Structures are given as C-alpha cells and as structure tokens.
Amino acid sequence: MRCQLAQVIIFIFATACLLAVQPNADAQTPVPNVQAERSCPLPFASNLGQPSDSEVSIAAVIFSGFLQISISDQEQIAASIKQRTYRASLDRVTDEALEVARLGWQDRGYFKAQVNGYTTALASTAVGQRIALSVYVDEGIRYRLGGVTFTHNKAVSNVKVLRALFPIKEGEIFSRKKVAEGLENLRYAYGELGYINFTSVPDTRFDDERQTISVDVDVDEGRQFYVSRVNVVGLDEQVSEQELKDLLLKRGDVYNQRLARLFVEKHAPLLPPGVLTESRIHLRPDERTATVAVSFDFRSCPVE
Q1: Does the predicted TM-score (pTM) go above 0.85?
Q2: Dihedral sign (CA 64, 67, 72, 76)
Q3: Measured CA angle at 200 (ends 22, 279), to 5 deg
Q4: DSSP secondary-structure letter at 54?
Q5: pLDDT per residue over 171-204, tens digit each?
Q6: Any domain includes 264
Q7: CATH number of domain containing 288
Q8: Does 131 lie in the same domain as 209?
Q9: Of 243, 223, 234, which is closest to residue 282 (Cα–Cα)?
Q10: Which residues pair with 61 in a beta bridge?
C-alpha cells in the first residue's frame, strides 16, 4: 500500500562514508548571465482579474464519536484548524478543515481515522464569514511504529545513519508527521552528498493484530553531481566577486545543498524580507557529465 507521507518541514544534517570518482568538472556549459533588471514571474494569467473568495474563519470546532484521544490532543487539533485563514467556498473550507482534523488524528497513531462533518454559519459580513465546524471521528485502531527499513540505498549503506534521520523510535505512537520529517531529512542528507535528484517512496505495512505500522523506504539515489560553475546574479560585478569569496562551495566540489543554503542565509540582508532560501538557489544539472551549474539569485522582485 502506497502512502503519501512526504510533506515539507524540518531539515537536519547527516554524515556518511562515501567513496566516489570525480568526473571532469570542466565539461559543463557555463551558467548564462541573468540580467539584474529582469523581473520576477507574474501571477498565473488565468487568475488575473478574477475576484478572490471571501475570508472564512472557523470560530468553534466540536468533535464527536467514541473518542479515545485525550482532551488536550483534541484541543490542539481544534486550535490548528481555527488558526488557519480560509479563502474558498464553504464546501472547500469544510473539506480543508476536515483534512486538518484527519491529519491530526494520524499524527497521534490513528492512521486509518475517518472523519466527516458540516459547518454552521455564526456571522456573515461583506468581507467574510465566521462558522462553527462539527466533526464526527471514527478513530479505528491506534498504531505504533513497527520499524523503518530501506532498499536500494547504495551510496549510503550504513542503515543506522539513515534510520537516525527519522525522529521516531520503534514502539512509539505512530506519527505521520514524524515519518514525513524523516523522509525530508533523508532527502536533505543525500543533497549534502551531491545526489540532487534523490527521491524516496515509502510503503506502509499494517499489522492490525499487533497494532503496528512498518515503513519500507524505497530509495532512488540517482547520480552524484559535481559543481561545474558558481554564479551570483542580481548584484553588481564587484559585489558578486566579494560575496563569492565567502562561499565554501567551489568548482569541482561535490555539490552540497547545506553549503548552498548557508551561503544564501548568510547574505539574507541582500534579499527582500520573507524570501525562502531554496527559491534563490537555481541548479542546472548536466546528466551526461554528472555536473551541476549553481546560480544564486539576489534580485529584488518589484512590488505590484
């Protein structure tokens, strides 16, 4: 059974012993210079000129059913639903809120929990609505983690290193969120080793008699990439040369995602507020030579 577990959220660094032969880093075509005055992409054309949905806030959440989950956990799930801002039709808001509730139960071991519910209008104005959400929950079995295993991991054969990336131990209450964090940590760790095309697919095995879930992670490492060129755009030439002196990622090195992110984070004052780090790191891989050209974009987007 395939389970969509991967969701972005927390990164950590992993080290592993890895032997590799370095290819010719000079074979990659240089990164083309990007004009600093080039503006950021405009919103999707299909969305232009269309009125947005009014804001919907959920002021109250009521759970019902034969619930084993604690009152404090119910309050936490309810808070996660109410703190969100919704801009959609009532039907869509209901679906989104019920999904948040379902994920909350999954993070507390009830992986097969089923939820349904309805909303009740409390107040309505020209700019928005306040509603109450009633949720019926069929919790089902509460599971614990049976184990985490890996297949097709060749570059990093130390299973203990990979397993340590998952912040959940065998026998603990199963948490979808913690498994998702482990998968993201796994991707990030391989990114530090140059495997920029790394993917992993989790497969869950249920044992209802023992009330456990085991996760088998099928790893597709891809190729290891070396840096062919590093370029900084959005700054004048003198500033770019100075900033590159602080970059630990050099031409000919194995690409390291952590070093690339650290470079952007160190020079965050050069970026507009609220910019995501990875959105300013652009990779141009060459599968034939197993090299990647790295570009750091410090351009400011015009405010519309």
Answers
A1: no
A2: negative
A3: 75
A4: P
A5: 999 999 999 999 999 999 999 999 999 999 999 9
A6: yes
A7: 3.10.20.310
A8: yes
A9: 234
A10: 133
Q: Which of the listed residues 224, 248, 283 is the one where a domain comes to its end?
A: 224
Q: Are 194 and 225 in contact (CB under 8 A)?
A: yes
Determine the pLDDT at residue 41: 47
pLDDT, mean of residues 263-269:
78
Find tokens 């050099």 and name the residue. Answer: 250
Residue matched to tokens 């020079």:
267
- Tokens representing 74 are 């119910």
Measured CA to CA, the distance from residue 175 to residue 141 in angstroms comes to: 13
Type and span of the H or E element at 284: strand 281-286
Residues 231, 219: one domain? Answer: no
**Are 89 and 164 contained in the same domain?**
yes
Q: pLDDT digits over 241-260, tens only?
A: 666 677 888 899 999 999 99
| Beta-carbon contacts of residue 131 (< 8 Å; ≥ 6 apart) | 56, 57, 58, 59, 90, 93, 119, 120, 121, 122
The domain in which residue 208 lies consists of 10-25+54-224
Q: Report how many domains make up the chain.
A: 2
